[in-house]
Write a structure and sequence with these properties.
This protein is an all-alpha fold. Helices cover 73% and strands 3% of the residues. The relative contact order is 0.21.
Amino acid sequence: MVLADAFIQGILMGFLFALISLGLTIIFGVMDIVNFAHGEFLMLGMYTAYFVSISLGVDPLVTLPVCGAVGALLGILSYYGLVRYLLRGPMVAQLLGTFGLMLFLRYLAVFLWGIDYRMIKKGILVGKSLTVGPFHLDMTKVVCALLSLVAFSVVSWVIFKTRVGKALRATAINREAASYMGIQTERMNALAWAMGGATVGVAGGLLANFYYIYPMVGLLFCMIAFATVALGGFGSIKGAFVAGILIGILETVFPILGHLLRTSVIGPQYKMTVVYLVYFLVMVFRPRGLFGWEH
């Protein structure tokens, strides 16, 4: 029963992990560039949810459109202010450029808000639970998981079912050919960063409902996002969804195994080690991931 409960909790977290990694895989799929500042976008989404809910006295879930707007704006500013210039240089310049953006945003948050931990303590769902048979689920995590699924589905629909989405995918497949067909690839790049920022901003707003908020929080979830994208396949939307659920299950079930087997070799303190091990093994033995393209 304990294992089944952990499995359900893992699926719920997996939906959120999938949404967190979605923006990372969109940007990579369109531009072949890794956004090392992705975790800091998430962190700023969490701070946005916190300060908007506190200052306006509204439920944290109401702040999600603001979190998405802030993330989209941050993505657009990052692209036009930095990334489009980095594209003219070698790959190492692109990597170091987004790494520098990560450090800038992280320590800007330290400068503005200090290193204190914050947490949202008031909300419609805070402290409430949902009982389904023998399982007792945190209502906040259930609703956040469902909203993550909705947000992921909406973005997937835009990418695969709309003209804008077709233009994005055409740019991802062959930028030069797309430009010959009249697609404004520069705008598609900016749109990819806006969508990436918006999705991870919303994910940050959801995560802030039940997780501590502090300037370094982006590092943890950025690594989870990298592991998720690597497992699913860089640039694969379906891969991000499936891998997010797998990573969520792995992260929650692994600590329970140590308790059931009564061994200290397997325990909660090693759960992130397992996630990083999966990331390492995938990159070594199957670099394209589960659903990545074969070039």
